[in-house]
Amino acid sequence: MPTYVISISGPTASGKTTLSRLLLRIFDGLTFTPRTRTTSTPISISTTILHQDDFYFPETEIPIKCVPKEDTPGEYEEQRDWDCPEAIDFGKLKCCLKKFRDEGCAGPEDHARILDELGIKAIEAENSVGPERVSQGEVNEIRGRILDELENSTELGNSARRVHILILEGFLLYFNETPHTKELSPLLSLLDARLLLHTTLTHAVSRRKNRMTYVTVEGFFEDPPGYIENVVWPNYVNYHRHLFVDGDVEKGELSDWAQTVAGIKRQEREGMEMRELVEWGAKVIVQALGQAQSG
User: Which keywords label this protein (predicted)?
Assistant: First the structure.
């Protein structure tokens, strides 16, 4: 059973987890028979989500950063930096992705088994992300249109009887290990489609402050005062400027290099509603499935 990895990345509070959960509801359990298929055997799709946040090192191994002390000009304090590459066990993440691709995945039970074999505790799903802002009726409508597209696909006729879509979501999937240079993320070769969401600092601060407590392996993490402005956003800019025209992360215009060499697809325009993001993401996934078959 082939597994296709669809990555969704972007800055904090850009909607990654919400979009991932909605796309799972769109694709999981779909059964269809492409009109170009030479047999009457249908194709069934299973879908699961892998969260990058489940690959943090233990809290005692998270790097420490010296940042300005909130409300005390000229003074500094040490804070754990959960938003740098050194905080994530990328070796284990790459191993996990390879295991999914090599062994295949039949659904949630297989997904849980793979994580268990690698000693990964899935806790990110326990974090609240707020309202999805897309009704079940809208999900059903989009699901129906995607089903029609799959049945009319000319590339999926010879696809395997069962296909698994693994949605990988995280804030640090396309980062550059050497800031200010154009290098590919070590994860890119394991990804079949690379989606990128965008938001501004103002919007990110507003949304993140509504959910400042996060579940961790050791318990809970709460954003210290000024953490978003002093750590989260500067880190995101530092490790992603290579993807954008003139290094302008706030403006968010992807460079030709990011689109053609890195193969990243950015949301189509600013201010897209979640329903629009779901429709866009679903179409990208259908295209990726077709390209994987024709490639």
Answer: Hydrolase
